[in-house]
Fold these 2 entries.
Entry 1:
Amino acid sequence: MEAKPVHFARLQQEESAGYDRSTIDYIHTAAQRGLYEIRGLGAKRKVPHFDDLLFLGASLSRYPLEGYREKCATRTVLGTRFAKKPIVLDIPITIAGMSFGALSANVKEALGQAATAMGTSTTTGDGGMTQEERRSSKTLVYQCLPSRYGWNPDDVRRADAIEIVIGQGAKPGGGGMLLGQKVNPRVAAMRTLPAGIDQRSASRHPDWTGPDDLLIKIQELREITDWEKPIYVKVGATRTFNDVKLAVHAGADVVVIDGMQGGTAATQTCFIENVGIPTLAAVRQAVDALEDLNMKGQVQLIVSGGIRTGADIAKALAMGADAVAIGQGMLMALGCNSDTYFQNGGLHSAAVDYAALGTSAGFCHHCHTGKCPVGVTTQDTLLEQRVQPEEGSRRVRNYLKTLNMELTTIARACGKQNVHHLEPEDLVALTVEAAAMARVPLAGTSWIPGLT
Amino acid sequence: MESVIFDLEKATVREVNQFLHGAPETLEGRQVTVVSPNGAHNLAVGVDAPVQVLIDGHAGYYAGGMNKHATIIVEGSAGTGVAENMMSGKVHVKGFASNGAGASAHGGLLVIDGDAGLRCGISLKGGDIVVGGSVGSFSAFMAQAGRMVICGDAGDALGDSLYEAVLYVRGSVKSLGADARYEEMTDADVSTVRDLLKAAGLNHDPMSFRRIASARTLYHWNADANQEY
């Protein structure tokens, strides 16, 4: 008698962990097109994050501040090491560098207005400084990037601080892209490129290589600005301990560390998901480097990459950051991945436009296409009208306000009159991985992996 | 012409630059001489006035960096990034120039009488560069706009990933970079080379130069350009 194969009903539908539907889809697409995927936003994979930390609020052994009434200072000063005119902010929450080109001029203006209203700074991006953002931003940080698109001495003089970008958390070691559909005539002119081409950004600066050169480059910028403006150095998080030490040796006033959850306008997916280390791991290393050099407090640390909530900010500050920078969160405040957009006094569904991109609200990462359904990451003349500076600014302002309220609420609960007094001792970890990375004890224990 | 002299045996680079950042109307037409520069970095950077600066010796990194309007002469050789991101004016190096000469220059004219090192004219954005001698490898890498005249030879990968900048070479080229190609010299090209040589004070036959420009095959990202990006 012939033996028949046995099939187990449930196992017929069991998905492989190694070759799940996403992986199979990736292989099928690669086989068909011979081209890797490019997309926007940041890493989607789950990595140890600030979610894996908890605060030890005050109780008998610590005395809390009254949650709503008592003073809790948020003033933040950046660039105290060499600059004659350090940056003084009302809150330790800044807006990260994002380019005009990736974002519309309306969005840049909205970010500038909101930052100004909340007493914080915003930052230019690859592609230069627009009049809109300079006009609307009281405090504007001007990025000096490898591409040097739109980089010019007049804007150096107009800026309040300079940020030399070595790398970005989404793609440390790699340059970005701006696909042709977003390179409209204005963007092209600012970047000195033909309109409509797929623009590739360089991964290395054109006029210096290595930390010894960077030292001289920083001195050049100080000379050009008559030693007035703080010089930030931004690095994508990889060998963070060494990178921060080298940046400090090179003369940075402020070091910006961007973890792997940081966003991008357009980068290879393989890069976004596989290069760099989580923000949580990078903060610890950066603070270690500053302490190792006895420069904590002299060189300020800004942390970015996947910071979303006031709790995230409080945790970053407790670990030793002086401030945070937020990019993707700001875009979401403006409507990124929302079901609707606001135009002509009312809300409109963006579902059809998401569907045209093969996605829907909550999953979209199509910044690279320039067809942003809610008008945030676009240069399209119709789509960009979906974010108006006034309404956009209102939303970003509210988001910043909420973040700051959450931050101070947590700080008060930990008994701090100043958010900068939050400290590692206020934290415990939920997972062994987070405990090891953040170097705080696993909750309910005194165990710090690798240390105790 | 009223002349001001800074002796770097006594004065500092800071004092030189501070003076050169004075009001343009007070600097216009003045001659500033820097003696004993001894390879100091960041000399005459961020100048924004039609002033004449003479660096009487060797300059370090970034001499004339981000220059606007000024005419800056380096009597000796210049270090890395001479005239980087120049917007207008002129920088003239009488000796040799190190790496990244004229990097990302948006305008103005950079003249190097001797040789230039690696990556001369990298990321060029509209400036003109004339090199009396030879240039090192990866020169004009990702150069976007502007013109380079190379009277001597060029190293490896000249014009790699070139955009709209145009290169003219008189000597041999060890290799062209991705997407760079030789093109016919037109009458306009000959005229361009003649004018640039004249502006640089060099005497060569413009007809002896070859034109190199972008084949524009990398302007759109696609699978056919495997490993070229």
Entry 2:
Amino acid sequence: MPINYYIFLSVALFCIGVAGVLTRRNAIIIFMCIELMLNAVNLLLVAFSKMHYHALSATTPNAGIDGQLFVFFIMVVAAAEVSVGLAIIVMMYRNTHSIDVNFLNRLKH
Amino acid sequence: MGTTQVLFWFLSILALLGAILVVTSKNPVHSVLWLIVVFVAISGHYILLNAQFLAIVNLIVYAGAIMVLFLFVFMLMNLNSETEPQKNRWLKIAGVVTGGALLLVLVAALKEADLKTQVEMGRGDSGLINNLGMVLFHDYVVPFEISSVLFLSAMVGVVVIGRKTPEERVGAIGDQKYGG
């Protein structure tokens, strides 16, 4: 597979995530769109890792393995981020009885 | 067109369709379920790229743990279609146009790029758990340990954020005693 296909697939997934963040008002859906963008980046990192492997596997047997480890660390950070973010959303629901991000404009006043 | 190509196009279309339905679904629970479909498709891509460890971790951590967490939060909140926040139609169109413009710019910038490089499909053992573990515990052992501190701080943060304030707690006990 040419690397172009993976690049375009990841770009399309990322842009769908961006459009979702901009169009939806539900805080949890916005959060899910951020997860979608993180996964698009993960897919591209793995594809580049295997591209690197294809180019360099003759000389170094573990070429491109760093990209896959970066994906692993991204997943670790995303898991921590999701737990903290959902706790913040639950607290926001408890205070305002809504998860509409339009209600979170109190810093303006 | 070999099996790998057919699987690639199938998984790509599944991922894109699921992603679009995540954004457009009215019911938030359907959004969560479509996001699980997207994650399964991305895991299939990892298997096609022979990154088995990441495929399994993606399925367990994302499609398993994180999405269950989302579903539990939705169940706790008792949301339905009436409470779904509505917004201005023009703002929605503006958001879609902005995302499409970003897509257009990135595709136009990358279309002419001379990337003749191929991706290695289904071969090479750099994604197996043995090799990844060797590199992880030799070269990346310090970030690995730091991530455990990150998890500890996230756990403490969740408990601190999710705790009720003393006034709320007194109110809840009062409701329990006198309410009902």
